Amino acid sequence: MKKFLREPLFYLLPLLVLIYIIIIPSVGISDAKVVRGDVTEYIKLPYLSEMPHGEVFSVSFDLFTKNKYVKYNIIPDNCIQEILINGEKFPLDGIEGICDYVKGAYFDFSKYVKSGLNHFEFRIQNHTGPGGLKFGTIYNGFKSLSFIHYIFALLLLLSTALILKKLNFKFIATSVILIGILARLILYTYTGPAQNSYDTFGHLDYIKIIAEEKRLPNGNECWQCYQPPFYYMAFAVVKKVTDWYESNLTDRIMQQVNLLLSFMCVALGVALILNLLGNNTRAYLIALVSALWPGFVLVAPHISNDILFYFASLLCMLFAQRYWRTHKNSDMLLASIGAAIALAAKSNGLVILAAWVIIYILGTMRSLKIGSLRTLFASILIVVLSIGFSHHKMIANLFVEKKLNLVENIGGMPDFLKVGNKAGNYLYFDLKDYLLEPYTDPYNDKGGRQYFWNYALKTSLFGEYKAWNSPIGHIVATALSILALLIFVLALWGIIHAKFKDLPPMIFTVFLFAALIYFRTSYPYASSNNFRYIFPAIFPLVYFSVCGVQILENSRLRKLSYLAMIAFFCLSFLFIIAKF
Fold first, then answer.
1. Which of the residues 203, 217, 272, 508 could staple to 221 if both were Cys, CB 3.0 to 4.6 A apart?
2. pLDDT tens figures, 1-24
């Protein structure tokens, strides 16, 4: 009992939760109503309802504020025609996004509101589909936060450090993980739920159907409804709880849950590297490069099942590697749990499962000793249940239609996303385009979308958007592209000369890249080539790049390669915090 009472986490974690509750922002909206024709209805924001094309409706509410600065992101569906604040017309001239139902527009109401209660009225015209209004805060980085937010961030990092210490991470390894977490925290402060997103609204629609209608949707009911239900069922619970407290915060809190998963991904990835190399300078360098890989950081606050897949894949990788070394039954079970969660998260979890099965078989042959039959049976049962629960639709289609359809929404892809599907698209690397175009675009050949390796490398760094779109941003992005190409070439050299002890990370790396190539060949669209589908491959890939450096005969080349990697993670951190 005394030991328990002396534990810092016993006091720190409740304090962290308390401060979190205090700093949860409240938009302070009350008495929200919608007027459609002669009918007035009380509503909760965000509001979305089916209505005919061209219908004009109004949404009104009271907003209580004590802040000097009142800035909000308003997402209309579709066009804001007029805004009244306390009966006074707010000027709309020059404001971009008043008809943007995805990202909306940013408004500064500071000069038009008074301290206390204010009455807002929006007149909106619906163009197509449903009509409605969403009201949210603007995310301007740490500079827009209060002192209590800084205290929360500090306590969060301190709590994480204490937890990692309990898990036997050394000081430098803990510092690397905290740097990775800090980069993601900074990114989160200036990234809204719908910013730079990959089909976020499709994922939100799936969650909404489960939360509000208490059922699993049909595969064609929303853009992401074909996905396995595990992630969406879990987040439906988050949505129900948050809606009860403050519905305007639901998307932001779901972002936070994904962010926490991304923190765990960093810890698992670093643990994997330490398991491969031990606690030494090379391991810490690999961990820093991987944890701060720009694209891997940029996906952290996205609301999607990708983050859960990354977490599960890295969990499987870590314990598969441990099983390869120690042949412990507990590692076998934990690797199987990782594979099962990866399967439950996304259909490409099948690749993680296949890699784990091969590693298990080769590990058993290598040691001439089969693991505990009870543990093996438990592992198989966990995986089978995961397949049955998450992929029953896909299995049913396989028996009925005699084909395996991994992506049911592929028929809805626009033709202008199509890319070439010939051997040259996979074998050729456009070096000139890669070096001269810092970013890539799924809608434009400029940037390398036609070539598999061009597009994969660029999307591993910046996704499918211009993350830092300024002259200096382009310079940094170009430098990162050049350094990343060097890392990939060194990784290939390391894989070619891989040793038998490196078989597990090699299998996972090769299988994940093979899956991405298969996906691109099966569905020849630019979006099918995005590196975000295989981000867990970053950790073993960077590991092999350092292996490649080690076998370089020229000592100057080795030193230059290490300096390039140090430059890479420094520029990566700069790239992420650029808006800070």
1. 217
2. 666 667 788 888 888 888 887 777
